[in-house]
Structure formats: C-alpha cells, structure tokens
Amino acid sequence: MAEADNIGTTGGALAGLRVVDASRVLAGPFCGQILGDHGADVIKIESPEGDECRGFGPPFVDGASAYFRAVNRNKRSMVLDMNREADREVFWRFVATADVLIENFKASTLKTWGIADPASITERFPSLIHCRITGFGDDGPLGRLPGYDAAVQAMAGLISINGEAGGNPVRLGVPVVDLTTGMNAAMAVLLALNARHRTGRGQLADVSLYDCAVSVAHPFLANFLASGVTPKPTGNGHPNIVPYDVYQTATCPLFVAVANDRLFGRLCEALGIGDLAADERFATNRQRVNHRDALNAALSKAFAAVDGESFGKQLLARNVPAAPILTIAEVAQAPHTAHRQMVVKKDDYVGPGIPIKLMGTPASVRTGPPALGSLKATGEDVESIWTE
C-alpha cells in the first residue's frame, strides 16, 4: 500500500483549475475525482441530504460508504438547497468563477430554474466548460429519460453478449457504463479546455451514458455492422480470436489469450502438442475460429495435465499471455499492485490508486472524501472560498 505523500506533489497537471462538481452518484463524481487527482480545486455541491451514494453500503467508513469514498477524494463539499432561490444564486456565483461545471441535473429540473436549454449556460458564462452528463442526451427518441448503469447496459446491448453461451444474459459486474462515462467526461473537459486555449471560449460537453455504452460494445457492434449476424454470449471466449478462454488445469483455472499464429505455436509446443499447430484446421486464426470446438477439446485435454500456476509462468516466459484468475482480495494484496501504487493511503483514507502517472506533473491524493458540507457559503464573497 502506497502512502499518498509519495505519489507526487500538490502541483499536478491541472493545478489552478476550478471545478464545480454538482453531479451525484458515480459517472460525474468519478470525472470530478480524476480532475481533482491531477490538481484541480474541486468543490462538490450537495443537497442537504447529501449525495445518495454516501449511503450505498455497507461497508461504511466514518459514516460514508466505501462506494462514495472511492470517487470523491480531493474535493471539498458545500451544501446548497437548490430548491431555494437564494442557494441557487450562490451556486451561480460559484459557476461564474469556475473553469468547469460538471452536472447531471434532469432537464426538467433545469427548466424549473428558468433554463429551457442547457446549452444556454455557456452563453451566460462564455469561458465555462460545461460538462453535462445525462442518461440518453437531451433530445432524440430516448432524450431526457433518466439513465442508470444496469438499465443502459441492457439497452445498449452489453448484457445481451455477456454470460455463457446458451445461458441467461448477465449484467457486467463492474458498473462499466458509469465508469466509462466518467472517464469520457474527464476527457471531454480536457479537450474543451485545450480548445479554449485557442478560441478563448468555453463550450458544452454533452456526454451520455447511452453513447458511452454503445461505444464500448467492441467488437460485437463492429462484427454486426460488418456481417449482419446478431452476436450472442461467448462466455470467457472471444468472438474473433481462438484460443482465448479459461482452461482448467490440474490445479487451477488459467486464462490464455493467444492473438496470433506464432503465439499459438508456442502454446502448443509448451503443452507438448506441437503437431496441433501444423493441423490445417488450426494453422491460422481464421481456421481456429471456424474449428473452435475441436480445438478447445484438444487444448482442454492437454491443460488438464499441467500445474496451472507453474505452467502459467512458463507461458509468460515464452511471451504467451496467460494468467491465473485472482480474487479482488488477492489483487489488493498483490506485490505489483503495491509497486504500481494502485492502493493508496492518506491519513485515514484508503482507496484505489491513480492509473494515469505523469512524470513531470504527477497526480496526488491530498485529501480524503469530504464530510457533508465541509465548506460554508457566506455572503457574496465566493473568491475567499476558492482560495481558503
């Protein structure tokens, strides 16, 4: 576990950037945390009840869920009751002094505040980068509908291709839609900031869960567009590459991913079935895909006779991708996880590490997640809040 003080300085690539994070739950807060990790000053706006994911537990730490704590570090919290006009005025004063606004308000909510078109916010604040996160966008057949990770997984086809062949469709265990949307939102902010350097103007960044989910339906969507054949679940197998699957060894399951003919030859040699690589049914990936069942039967028999852990290391030594299936607990305690600082500790905060490692302006964990309303809005002077 890495001490956060050893993960860079407080400078960061985005030092000096002011971000109002008025989003809640996962996609928006994850975007805000990415910006905060890299030095941005992020003020999280919460309702008097707080972001509901503070209660997504157990487990809880200091009254807040581990879920909340994982995506809200490096922020300060301010409570504003947006149903009150006075608090909305405070909110807009903060937006006026910010570089970035992240929000996932319902369009109907914005309308009650007198904002008929979300794009008008950047007309009011010309230099603002307005990152708007929605379920399906604000127009179109599904526009303005609420978005939830699992529902969007279903509507974007992701659940339909996940699970065992012939079995029931299965939700992806990781909230991949929300997390992908959060990463795309952070990228959208950075793209818009770069454009502002050139034009001097901000813009609306429209990021929807649906778009992000459809964009990661790879290679299944591409396969359908090319063939017209509706993809089906393939379990641990790959629709385009064979062998690419989990094989049961004498001791443990082993995932093997062989992406070219040369690696297939090395795999067969290591298994003592080198003649299989010369079989015309398996000589190329195209042929292996066409004869998937016959090949997997031969490989399964060979794998059943080897020690999984030691054989996996032998394959890696031959540059053949292979890996045992680890639990989350094993990953959290793995030496390489510690080496890459992917579990970090700062005072009483422990959480996932920072995957983007910049050498010149490294990211840092400066503060843990904020207590609800740790900042207090006073009077007209929002500048003092930013600088305190």
From TrEMBL:
Coiled-coil stretches: none
Positions of the UniProt region annotated as Disordered: 367-388
PANTHER family from the UniProt entry: SUCCINATE--HYDROXYMETHYLGLUTARATE COA-TRANSFERASE (PTHR48207:SF3)
GO molecular function, one term: CoA-transferase activity
Protein name as it appears in the record: Crotonobetainyl-CoA:carnitine CoA-transferase CaiB-like acyl-CoA transferase
Keywords: Transferase
Domain of life the protein comes from: Bacteria
